[in-house]
Write a structure and sequence with these properties.
Elements lengths: L1 H26 L5 H7 L5 H14 L1 H25 L4 H12 L4 H4 L1 H7 L5 H22 L9 H30 L6 H13 L3 H10 L6 H30 L2 H32 L8 H21 L3 H10 L5 H30 L8 H28 L4 H11 L3 H14 L4 H16 L1 H11 L17 E6 L3 H15 L6 E10 L5 H22 L4 E7 L2 H11 L4 E4 L8 H11 L2
Helix pairs in contact: 4-5, 4-16, 5-16, 8-15, 8-16, 9-10, 9-12, 9-17, 10-12, 11-12, 12-13, 12-18, 12-19, 13-14, 14-15, 17-18, 17-20, 18-21, 19-20, 22-23
Amino acid sequence: MKVRSILYYLFIIIGGVALGYWIVLHGKSLESIGSMTENNSGGSAWQHFVATIGSNLAYPLAMLLLQIIAIILVARFFGILFRKIGQPSVIGEIVAGIVLGPSLLGNYFPEMSSFLFPVESLGNLGVVSQLGLVLFMFVVGMELDLKILKNQAHDAIVISHASIIFPFLLGMVLAYFIFQQTAPPDISFLSYALFIGISMSITAFPVLARIVQERGMTKTRLGSIAITCAAADDITAWCLLAAVIAVVKAGSLASAGYTILFAAAYVVLMLRVVRPFLQRIGDLYSSKERMSKPVVGIFFLTLLISAWTTEIIGIHALFGAFMAGVIMPANVSFRNIFIEKVEDVSQVLLLPLFFVFTGLRTQIGLLNEPGLWQICVLVIVIAVVGKFVGSALSAKFVGQNWHSSLTIGALMNTRGLMELVALNIGYDLGVLTAEMFAILVLMALVTTFMTGPALDFINRYFKPEKDVDDKGISKKNKYNILISFANPNTGKVLLRLAHILTKKSTDNSTISALHLSPGNELNQFNSEEYERENFTDLDQESNLLNQPYRPIFRGTDDIEEDIAQMANTDDYDLLLTGIGQSVSKVRYWEKFWVLRVK
């Protein structure tokens, strides 16, 4: 049977080739003399092949794919590099965009830059990057949990709105002094002043949320206030930005009235009609098994219609995408599933295109006069004073201690990607010149970059008033044990071991359980799900032993380094780990025992 199949296969292959050759041979007689001469006039076969390769490289799809490959590679490299120095990966990706733009690659390697980013290809790159932004803003809207605004609502709204009003007014004052020097010739002062004001007022909610999560502040009172402030800030800032866009496009407040009126009607429609409808669908299809392609299509169609509507109204498609994310069903399981469907494509594949597209527009070389650099420094100072100082003083005014107030100020001063989105909108509308665009991009980089060092400085020199964790368990003057586990079953064993070591001195000892999730790209929804999955067994064991413990869950890029750092910097006396090889290196054990054994 096997020989028969092989013979049949050979017959099909040989017979097919022979028949095809016979058809081609006889088909040549049908060619005209002119076409035969044209086909044979291209030189050697190799030259023809090389010419074909060159033509294929210049084809728009091939060029776009090559650009995407180069952008993702460079963005990933700089993202990892900046994570290693304690900065959010988004900073590295923004820097990657500037590196690939005219400021560096175009300046020092112009031939490579013109080959990789020819002028005629930038239109396609811009459109795809805008699609990535639409998906990203959709995710940002979904990651906003409106229920958190009910907790700490009063303090958060006071701090949030103060952190918008102070920098907004300072930005308008700045616009008054630099208008004649930096504004485009055909733009009104009102449009320019409003846009400079809103540029100073934006906080990057996604970056702030990641920083809070990476620093283990998610379940603390301070972290909750910071997230709530950022959420309120995000909603308010995007509403203000939509109004500013309407004014810029209309040219005056009176003319923008109709746009704002239609935008208000659109928001009411989304909240009162579309949201309840989507909520019913989300309640019915909240699991991966039940979420079929037609159901997913309904939500994506809602996103596209919302983005299209706000673009037509005149307040930009990104606001519609953001609003579509906000009204998605509040079911945590549903949002987690949907975020996972969209987030990887938008953030890994499409969003780096936006960073590079922004970098291609950012020409730092245009700041070739001392006066422009003075304006750049002034913009950065005003941005920091308005946002950092304004938020910190407001937090202090509503009753926070200095540590919490300054921490909130540092976090609210984070601008990141959201600032770049607003700046690109302003650049497209013609409100910003190329020089002012470059200055504001540098301001976004500096204010985001300084967040990590500022938090480290605050934590070092301004101690919290109470040395109590998020569960009310004080570690001060006690024997503190940290258990670190990857597998929940291992965590149960380690919890029992820690209980045996401390059961005779329960009042004078504490136990903390640490689980680190590889990768730090967690959102609040999948973070809650992963934490629940990993700590359920420990909760049951804790109840069985009547042994309280403090759960610690966060994402990380370097598990062993983070465990070692936590064991050495926090007030722990003993580390019990089930991870094994990654933490059993002598240098970590030696460092821990030398510093921590009493």
